Structures are given as structure tokens and as C-alpha cells.
Amino acid sequence: MREIVKEKDLSAEIMNKHKKGGWSQARFQRLRKGSIHAFFVEVAEELEKNVGNSLIIAGPGVAKHEFIKTLSSNLKRKILNVIDVSIKEGNLYGKVKELILKKDEKEKENLIENLKKEILRDGLAVYGIDDTIKAVEDGKIEILMVGKNYKIRGWICENCQIIRKGEADKCFNCGRNVSEVDVIEEIIELAERTDTIIEFFDDEDMKKFSHIAGLLRYR
Asked: Which residues fall within 8 angstroms of residue 147, CB to CB, at 6 or more apart?
């Protein structure tokens, strides 16, 4: 589950609705609408700077739909859901967490299915510790998939940085000294340096793939 982090609070002083008739009411409503629109634009500009791949619009009444009209085409494409909630922050955060959790679960299910398909057709996938290490070292993995509690002891060469499971006194490649490590931690660190996406799964989901696998960029 991803953590929800509050990046910034934005607020504006918006005048309450004016019930008196005549010219003053019309002018008041124009000013009020202008203030609301200016605030929506300010929020939209902040979203352009901070939003990731998905956007959830939440709030009471029709205001959220008016707000969406001020968003760029780029932001509109990222809208995951529009939900009607009260202003109470606890209620809002609860609904957002629920939506993110459902989205994460669906994405992970799709990754598992893609992995199965690629393995069955001997395509763009590897699994098991040995083949996955080699693919990470070669920079081939696009998405590294790991059981979240999986650990395995091994070693890394202090000279050529080769990673292997098991024990060794010297590196088989260069003959230099090696250091004992958690192989999974080293694989993840190496994968991050090659812009690989790291996804953690329940251990039971990854058990059939020997706890670690990867979808490849190329063979």
C-alpha cells in the first residue's frame, strides 16, 4: 500500500452566497465565481508540478466537476476516479486509500498474468534467483517482481561487483575478495541504477516463481 503524503495545503477566502436581489447580487456573484475560478487555476497549476501517474478528484457537490474543467488535457487523462465525499479529511483520506489499494491490486494482478504469459511462450520474462540476477546485471529487466519478505544470503565481489547466492572466499571472475550480502537487497540496488521498476508482492503470489522474477525490456 502506498503512503499518502500531503505535499501542500491550498486555501482561498471565498465569499458566502449573496441572497439580496438587484445589481449588487449580480456583481457579487460574478466576483464570487471569479474567486472560485482563480483558486481552481491555482490548484491545477500545483497539480501540474506534483501529480504522478494517477489523479483522484474528491469533494462535495458539483464543485469538483467545475474544477475538472480547468485542468489541462494531460491532467484529465490521469484522472483515476471522481468521488463525492464530505470535507472531513479523515473521510477523504479513507476513500482515497481504498481507491489506491484497489488500483494497486489490479495492477499487480495484471503483472502476474503478463509474467505467466511471457514465461509460457518463452518470451520477455525470467524467474528464479540465478536467471534474474543475470538479467539485472545485463540491464535487461524493465520490471523486477519480488516477494516482499524474500531474503537470500550470498556475496558480492568487491572488485567487479558480481552478485551470486551461496558462499565464496574469492570471486570466480576476477579472483578478488568478496563480501557477504543479502542478495535481494543488492539486486534491488543494482536494478534501481538501471531505471528498473521495482514491485513487491505477497510472498504467496511469488512462490510459484521462486520468489523473484522480471519482465524484460529485450532478450
From this structure: 200, 201, 202, 203, 205, 206, 207, 211, 212
Q: How confident is the model at residue 60, as a pLDDT? A: 75
- Render pLDDT for 69-88 as a digit per residue (tens, 0 to 9): 999 999 998 888 888 776 55
Check: CATH 3.30.420.60 for 24-101? yes
The answer to whether 144 and 211 are in contact (CB under 8 A) is no
CB crowding 44-75: b at 16 or more within 10 Å, else e:
beebeeebeeebbbbbeeeebeebbebbeeeb
Q: Where in the chain is the domain with CATH 3.30.1330.30?
A: 124-216
Quick: pLDDT tens for 141-155: 999 999 999 999 999
Low-confidence ranges of the chain (pLDDT < 50): 1
Longest dimension (CA), the chain: 91
Where do the CATH 3.30.420.60 domains begin and end in the chain? 24-101
CA pair distance 199, 201, nearest whole angstrom: 7
CATH superfamily entry for domain 124-216: Ribosomal protein L30/S12 (3.30.1330.30)
What span, in angstroms and rounded, lies between the C-alpha atoms of 196 and 193?
A: 7
